Amino acid sequence: MNRALIASTAAVAVAALLGGTWYLTQASGDALAACRTSSVAGGAIGGPFELVNGAGETVTDADVITAPTLVYFGYTFCPDVCPLDAARNGEAVALLEERGHEVNSVFITIDPERDTPEMVGDYASYMHERMVGLSGSLEQVKAASKAYKTYFKKQKPEEGNEEYYLVDHSTFTYLMFPENQFAEFYRRDVTAEKLADSVQCFIENS
Fold first, then answer.
1. Are 139 and 117 in contact (CB under 8 A)?
2. 1-26 core/surface letters (b: 16 or more CB in 10 A; e: else)
3. Strand, helix or coil at 40?
4. Burial class for 83, CB neighbours closer than 10 Å (0-12, 13-18, 19+)
5. What is the pLDDT of residues 22-72, one digit of tens each?
6. For 184, phi and psi rounded to 5 degrees?
7. 128-173 pLDDT, tens per residue?
8. What is the distance between the alpha carbons of residues 30 and 106, in angstroms, rounded to a whole number?
């Protein structure tokens, strides 16, 4: 099975999970339905994690999700998708600041073998001064990824260059509130302005 098919299958599985969550929440009533830009509602996405920030400090989800927070899983060596997504998230946070809302943003690496905490911290702060970059051991990263139902898989390195490889991964951005309350997810095609509009709706109607 080639990697494109694996990634596609994983994305379908995550979408199915999110769709099921949407159905269950709609059946019980959802006061924030008008804020949603996708067919999903609060559910079993997110959970406790323990990772390392750019200063080398061990932090938990409670330490970084202290306000509405955009959470994204990627890696600094990603050649195209991750920098665009992280920049979009940073832009959305800046737009929300202009509107009077302070929102956090977190970038969690799925490539801790190469991404040191300092590297991820610098990468995140470049996207937005308050964006938090997190790394850790592979076991810690896997635990966080599992909590958020994300997918990643390291590909074989180039022959003769063991340090160069790509990592397949899902590309959803999650809106989380403190105490691991999942509100919404955003695909890559959502613009910074639309993302900010959605987050603002959640904040003002919660």
1. no
2. eeeeeebeebeeebbeebeebbeebe
3. coil
4. middle
5. 333 433 345 577 887 665 544 589 999 999 999 999 999 999 999 999 999
6. -165, 160
7. 999 999 999 999 999 999 999 999 999 988 777 778 899 999 999 9
8. 26
Q: How many residues does the chain have?
A: 206
Rounded to whole angstroms, the Cα distance separating 82 from 177 reads 23
| Residue 118 to residue 193: CA distance in whole angstroms | 30
Pair of tokens at residue 158: 């180039």
Residue 33 is given by DSSP the state G
Please choose, from the candidates 156, 105, 159, the residue with its C-alpha nearest in 3D space to the C-alpha of residue 134.
Answer: 105
Report the Cα 184 to chain-centroid distance in Å: 11
The model carries a pTM of 0.82
Q: Which domains does the chain have, with CATH numbers?
A: 3-205 (3.40.30.10)
